Amino acid sequence: MTSRYQEAHQRALNDPEAFWGEAARAIDWVRAPTRILERQADGTGRWFADGILNTCWNALDRHVEGGRADQAALIYDSPVTGVVQRFTYRELRDQVALFAGALVALGVVQGDRVVIYMPMVPEAAIAMLACARLGAIHSVVFGGFAAAELATRLDDARPTVVVSASCGIEVSRTIAYKPLLDEAIRLAQAKPRHCIVLQRPMLAATLEPGRDLDWADAVAAARPHDCVPVAATDPLYILYTSGTTGQPKGIVRDHGGHAVALRWSMDNIYAVAPGEVMFTASDVGWVVGHSYIVYAPLLAGATSVLYEGKPVGTPDAGAFWRVIAQHGVAVMFTAPTAFRAIKRDDPEGRLLAQYDLGRFRALFLAGERADPPTVEWAQDLLRVPVIDHWWQTETGWPIAANCMGLGLMPVKPGSPTVAVPGWDVCCLDAEGRPMAAGDVGALAIRLPLPPGALPTLWNAEARFRQAYLAAFPGYYQTGDAGFIDGDGYVHVMSRTDDIINVAGHRLSTGAMEEVLAGHPDVAECAVIGVADELKGQVPLGLLVLKSGARRSTDEVARDVVQLVRDRIGPVAAFKTAVVVQRLPKTRSGKILRGTMRAIADSQDYRMPATIDDPAALDEIRQALGRIGYARAPG
Ligand code: COA
Ligand code: AMP
Question: Which of 76, 138, 414, 503 is exposed most, by the fewest CB atoms within 10 A?
Fold first, then answer.
């Protein structure tokens, strides 16, 4: 018998126009699309090209008009400030309309960019939705990035206005945001005309007269603004993510495909019904936060929890259980690292006994490989399905999942289950030929990609084609390696590039190497991602010093740690650098990062046939051994 999943998967592959045309009916259109999928000669496609809509209308106004005005849309739960604040759909719509008016008063028009650099406060979501209301393009920058990273994004996005806050709170530390913003604007070539700054009671920011406005004043003077109709193919947002260099990739998301795909995912992947509560413990600065804290729950008329806290320490490892119980959460979504942190602090899960999780139905995990011990621990404790699913900033929603709304399939530990309807996942060899079931290769998606996936990179169409479409003509290259087994289950093993995943945060080791190489005493360097029990991976730097270096090896190692923190940000979690005499290389001069990673993680590895000088590997093993890595020689 064909399962509901198989039926949907086949229909989406065989007749995507009919499948997504039907899904598009769940969205309110100013002009319904008639051209569902326009196929381009290179295999890519444009979704809903003649459709006109407004994403904010679909997220807020339609629910206010449709009977959900008094239902909670957003619950701000902040253990770090002791605040719980509920916004009904009407309240959120009104605040968003007012803030949209404030942006318009500063000259923001459709197509303008607005950079949002904020902690996890409801105003961040309000600012995003206000941009969507105006057809302005938001670009949210995660608060853990340093001023230089923000400056790079300002220069690429060239925003009219930046929205920020006086501070964020990291457990019990107050982190001043405004000095970072001021420094970023100083560094950037593209200066925003204005900044709107939310003054939080814990710390007041100094405002620059003429340029900066207090959020409260801007809103007090504003008139509510209506939804502006935009083309389905117009950009809703740009979200920068790590590429292989210090220049991040500006992932573009369009309005129409995004709204249709996310709305569909709420029923079919997450099985969250209108009126139910979804809790995504991530950050609005990441794609998971964009999609499942802000847009998808609201598009579905559900309630979203916006949580300003950590899995542990705010106040303890029972924090998530408290939120689930207090707000009647049906479905939660976070990264495996959060559960590893909880397990570390409360291995028996004793804190759970204090809470009633009666309405809790499922836990979804993504952002990094879900290690089977963590999944099993969570499942034994919570006694609900724990669903690993695979996706990327580029895709905007899951590529592979156990689609709860289409009937759960048997779980294979370590696999995010099967391709989600709409995604034609393939495993290819280096020449682009399909691999046999079970053989490891490059995971790729046959074009066209479904609605919601990136149509391009901001200001960088050529880079988009080069990075994603060039390697395998007719396919999107995910950058992940893995295999598809005989039952069609996808197994995601590792990245094929130099991107690492640190506590579910995506970072580029190439970008860190650029920072290390900038130290005057560093001749050569490599940054590798090594296994970490809590964060999955952490970066580790290997440095070769110039002869006649002015500072000692210890000093340079300390300097570069500080440099990465200053240039990229604390989120990089770059805490260890070690000075070595030389780096192992191939005869053509390529640094053997993969082999060094295997040595650091005490894994078996094969001596590369092309290695220039095998003794260099022994030196690396000894150096890593001195700092606690490379415990068992490979
Ligand atoms: N603003 C400023 N600084 C921030 C920040 C923000 N929004 N977010 C993180 N940082 C800082 C932290 O304070 C920390 O600084 P430190 O080096 O001075 O301690 C650093 O960046 C690293 O932060 P984080 O990755 O959060 O590590 P942690 O050690 O503080 O906490 C976990 C570890 C596992 C508890 C934490 O990573 C976590 O909750 N992860 C959840 C997963 C997640 O949200 N993933 C997103 C994709 S789904
Ligand atoms: P990001 O763009 O930050 O969402 O990171 C995307 C990358 O995280 C993917 O390319 C994978 O390498 C990794 N990733 C995300 N989800 C999973 C998962 N469920 N299993 C394995 N890797 C994952």
Answer: 414
